[in-house]
């Protein structure tokens, strides 16, 4: 499904939208109970989204949630070393990713598995890094998305550099960087915004404010909205309900259109919530309350879109059955792909480190090869190898 929108707004119109944004704390087009809300300056950007396309967005979110729960189960069963859940953040990822063109380029953190799904990343490739069998999961140029950045905020620099390259080439492609609320306190993110603003780079900074940077609440690191930071760099910002797939899509379209027409960077704060742990090695019950979880569960992005579709008479059993069947099929394919991944040759870790031969690396490889060979001559080699 593609809901890319080619806008024709002028820079003056963008400035009008910026003024309208000041009237709303958080832009919302679908309420938590599924009512369609009106928002001046945003409605026109999603007027073309049909009810059928909303159903497709619903399918996307259900499938992505199933990918997430299946991957979490695989980790709990010892098939993955780690998994970063996105439970609760489906609308922020699907709404923004479906607004992109195929020639736009995504730079993400480690949680944007929903975006990866929209970009067409193979399910098996999605598992490789977390199964510990590869340093990189897929070919970025085949899907228009870089592999996840684990260093917090580093991808914003990459996105800004790529955007400057698009600008230099005379292309109207746009780079988008995804990051969390915690990353806004990192130097890389702030340095990226300095460069982007200085050179009017066609880049979108998309912050998923999921309320927690591991165990640190967003209110501890920022006394104002995160979207208030960007204007200090000369970058206009929007603050939208990140659990509202339609509001997220509208905001992303505005930002993309602004970038394509020479308006420079935009910062989007999508206010959402991480329903699960930071990663599968985290225990969120140690730092957040059950009542907080219940409060956000009532704002679930999938149930609110389902309510809207039901009010329009397009949520019969047939749609639910079709979507659930698709989610089940995806989960089966992903599990089968994960379990089929072959273990790599241990010495392959030294491949693709340097473009040219490197004596230091060759020495390390030789030493590691000798270490591995030592098990072959040991009668207990197989047992020792398992322990290592």
UniProtKB/TrEMBL annotation:
One of its GO terms (biological process) is branched-chain amino acid catabolic process. It comes from Mycetocola zhadangensis. Keywords: Oxidoreductase, Pyruvate, Thiamine pyrophosphate. One of its GO terms (molecular function) is oxidoreductase activity, acting on the aldehyde or oxo group of donors, disulfide as acceptor. Coiled coil: none annotated. Residues 60-329 form the Dehydrogenase E1 component domain. CDD domains: TPP_E1_PDC_ADC_BCADC. Its cofactor is thiamine diphosphate. Pfam families: E1_dh (PF00676). It comes from the Bacteria. This is Pyruvate dehydrogenase (Acetyl-transferring) E1 component subunit alpha.
């Amino acid at each position: 499904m593609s809901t890319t929108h080619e806008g024709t707004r002028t820079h003056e119109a963008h400035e009008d939208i910026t003024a309208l944004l000041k009237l709303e704390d958080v832009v919302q087009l679908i309420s938590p109970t599924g009512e369609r809300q009106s928002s001046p300056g945003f409605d026109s950007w999603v007027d073309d989204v049909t009810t059928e396309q909303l159903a497709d967005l619903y399918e996307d979110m259900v499938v992505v949630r199933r990918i997430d729960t299946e991957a979490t189960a695989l980790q709990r069963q010892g098939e993955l070393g780690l998994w970063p859940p996105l439970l609760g953040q489906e609308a922020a990822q699907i709404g923004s990713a479906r607004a992109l063109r195929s020639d736009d380029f995504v730079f993400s953190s480690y949680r944007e598995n929903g975006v990866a799904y929209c970009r067409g990343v193979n399910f098996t490739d999605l598992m490789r890094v977390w199964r510990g069998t590869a340093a990189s999961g897929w070919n970025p140029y085949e899907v228009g998305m870089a592999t996840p950045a684990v260093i917090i905020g580093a991808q914003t620099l990459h996105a800004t550099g790529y955007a400057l390259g698009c600008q230099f080439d005379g292309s109207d492609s746009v780079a988008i960087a995804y990051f969390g609320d915690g990353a806004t306190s990192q130097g890389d993110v702030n340095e990226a915004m300095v460069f982007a603003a200085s050179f009017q780079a066609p880049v979108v900074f998309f912050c998923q404010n999921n309320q927690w940077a591991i165990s640190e609440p967003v209110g501890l690191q920022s006394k104002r909205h995160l979207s208030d930071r960007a204007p200090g760099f000369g970058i206009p910002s929007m603050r939208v309900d990140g659990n509202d797939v339609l509001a997220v899509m509208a905001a992303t379209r505005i930002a993309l259109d602004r970038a394509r027409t020479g308006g420079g960077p935009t910062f989007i704060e999508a206010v959402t919530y991480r329903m699960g742990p930071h990663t599968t090695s985290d225990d969120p019950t140690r730092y957040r309350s059950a009542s907080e979880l219940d409060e956000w569960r009532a704002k679930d992005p999938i149930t609110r879109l389902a309510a809207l579709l039901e009010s329009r008479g397009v949520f019969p059993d047939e749609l639910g059955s079709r979507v659930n069947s698709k989610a089940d099929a995806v989960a089966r394919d992903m599990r089968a792909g994960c379990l089929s991944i072959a273990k790599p040759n241990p010495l392959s870790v030294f491949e693709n480190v340097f473009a040219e031969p490197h004596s230091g690396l060759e020495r390390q490889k030789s030493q590691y090869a000798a270490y591995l060979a030592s098990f072959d001559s040991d009668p207990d080699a197989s047992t020792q190898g398992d322990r290592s």
